Amino acid sequence: MALDLAAIRAQFPILRKTIGGRPLIYLDNAATTQKPLRVLERLERFYREQNANINRSMHALAEEATLSYEEARNRVARFIGASHSHEVIFTRNTTESINMVARSWGTTLKRGDSIVLSMMEHHSNIVPWLQLKESHGISLRWVPVNREGTMDMDELKGVLSSGRVKLVSVTGLSNVLGCLTPLQEIARMAHRSGARLLVDGAQLVAHERVNVQNPDIDFLAFSGHKLYGPSGVGVLYAKETLLERMPPFLGGGDMIQTVTTEKFTCADLPRKFEAGTPATADAVGLGEAIAWLEDTGAEAAHEHTRSLVRYAHKQLRSREGITILGPKNPKKRVCCVSFTVEGVHPHDLTDVLGQEGICLRAGHHCTQPLHKALDLTASTRLSVGVYNTKEEIDVCMAAMERAIHLLKK
Amino acid sequence: MDLYAENILDHYRHPREQGKLLRPSVRHREENVSCGDELTLDLKISQGKIIRLAWHGKGCAISQAAMSMLSEELPGLSLQKAKSLKPDVMFDLLKVPIGPRRLKCALLALHALTNAIRKYKGQAAQSWAVTIDAH
User: Fold this and answer.
1) Which residues of B touch A342 (CB under 8 A)?
2) Is A409 within a domain?
3) What is the CATH number for A321?
4) Average pLDDT, chain A
5) Residues of chain B contacting A, Cβ within 8 Å
6) Which of A126, A243, A257, A338 is most buried by a 10 A CB count?
7) Domains plus CATH for chain B?
8) Nearest CA to CA, how far is A345 from chain B (Å)?
């Protein structure tokens, strides 16, 4: 199924915006994505026609709101291949999802147990574990990645053989290097050594079909706003058996069965992990975004973004003075391409491009350890979404050439 | 290209007072961790005045140009005057509007100067919050 790009773009009102008289060229999709009309309208319709607090209230409006919320949960569950929809917990974002695992499941670990991370992880998949190290004395082991983003699997094997590893926590798709991790192999290795697997799916779910049964994923974390959905909602998927044994994360209303002055009992899944009034409308919006993506053709969308980012890679590769980070082979590239330009600082480059309406991102992209390992402080990142076009990449490249010419020392 | 006006690019390409002093009265390095801009400032101080300076660094055009511009204002300046320089001085030198995103780039030079003088006097470094807040 080929995509009708014009029809898709027409569904994103923000693409008609101009900046400094020029059309917006939004190439910062790894940071956040734009929303189609269908999602915007669903959000509005929820507030216009269905808004009520879920669960508790006995009236028809609350029932409608609850049904909408639970329908969204079902959509997410189907989207990722979960066995039960109560294995899908709505959170605020990927960061909160990972924090939930660290603060809940993580507290069942013992001093000296290890958690394995890769050197290309996002801070949201590093800091919660550093915090757990401080609070519970668990140790962190790091698997190096080479300049192409390939994980050192021998090192991983060696670390796992210690028998003390309880969790391998890795990204499914690097937000800097634009490379996929070999999740099948990692899952096999982890489970064989008695460790669980957490996948940071923030970028992955928008660019590849994910099925948590295959590879066998124990925890999957992702954000709504990177998947053409609203900000304010994220997902933690976890196996039922894990969630049942985990202590609750936040305490309060909805996650309880009974409360006395002495103690409380937990609600069943998934409520146990959804304390307080959720971002109901945003969750409904996420469900709509997923439905939109499936109706548009998820596989076709992924094929399109893949071919675009590979095109961008080839364009950058052909220019002098530009060093591309991550896989040298464009065929291995997904989602984004980060690069450095000799003699030009990423902030200056993105500032000049920004003035022409072209949105790229500069900095360390929340991966300070990775940038340090690459001996960089900052890089520039171009990341694609389903509504981007080859023409936009061409305009970006031409603008970049002019900007580099202006800024080069 | 507003932010990259001629004067900024000129100072970025031909930075003034670059280098190192052989025997500085104080040497201080300041870094913007979030983006990697850094400056090392050498000051020669005599009788309460900055008589000579040199600096080197790397980073974005705004941060380096700002240091170059500031360095032209410093020789002969008393420590008292130098310490009381406010962010407005930097904005006047740069001559372009600086948004919140580039604030730290524009003020790194001033921050480095403030803390170099504080170091010379044996005082603790001033935080970014204080440097920025002064504007």
Assistant:
1) none
2) no
3) 3.90.1150.10
4) 96
5) 1-4, 9, 12-13, 34-37, 59-62, 101-102, 105
6) A338
7) 2-133 (3.90.1010.10)
8) 5
Quick one: angle between helices B61-73 and B6-13, nearest 10?
90
| Partner-chain contact A347 B62, CB within 8 Å | yes
Q: Is the dihedral of CA B100, B106, B108, B110 positive or negative?
A: negative
DSSP A155-171: HHHHHHTTS-EEEEEEE
A330 and A265 in a common domain: no
Q: Do A364 and B102 touch (CB under 8 A)?
A: no
Same domain, A259 and A313: no
Choice among A66-70, A262-266, B5-9 with the minimum mean pLDDT: B5-9
Nearest CB to A406; choose among B2, B4, B37: B4
- A345 → chain B, closest CA residue: B60
Total domain count for chain A?
2
CB contact under 8 A, B35 and A348: no
Domain check: are A227 and A336 in the same one? Answer: no
pLDDT, one tens digit per residue, over A224-265 is 999 999 999 999 999 999 999 999 999 998 899 999 999 999
Say if residue A272 is in the same domain as residue A365. no
Asked if A92 and A277 touch (Cβ cutoff 8 Å), the reply is no
Query: What percentage of chain B carries pLDDT values higher than 90?
Result: 83
Q: The whole model's pTM is what?
A: 0.94
Residue A361: which domain range?
Answer: 5-31+297-404
Q: What ipTM does the predicted assembly reach?
A: 0.86
Residues A263 and A303 in one domain: no
Residue range B53-61: average pLDDT?
95
Distance CA B90, CA B97 (A): 11
Verify whether the Cβ–Cβ distance A345 to B61 is below 8 Å. yes
pLDDT tens digit string along A258-308? Answer: 999 999 999 999 999 999 999 999 999 999 999 999 999 999 999 999 999
The SS3 call for residue A196 is: strand
State mean pLDDT over A209-231: 98
A135 plus A221 within the same structural domain: yes
Chain B residue at shortest CA distance from A408:
B13
Does the active-site annotation cover A336? no
Mark yes or no for CB contact B12/A364 under 8 Å.
no
Instruction: Please tell me the distance in Å from A382's CA to the nearest CA on chain B.
Output: 17
Tell me if residue B91 falls in helix, strand or coil. Answer: helix
Q: Which of A179, A335, A336, A366 is catalytic?
A: A366
What CATH number does residue A245 fall under?
A: 3.40.640.10
Do residue A172 and residue A89 come from a single domain? Answer: yes
Please answer yes or no on whether B4 and A348 come within 8 Å at the CB atom: yes
Around Cβ A213, how many Cβ atoms within 10 Å?
A: 10
> What's the Cα-to-Cα distance from A94 to each of A122, A124, A276, rounded to whole Å?
10, 8, 19
Contacts of A351 in chain B (CB under 8 A): 3-4, 101-102
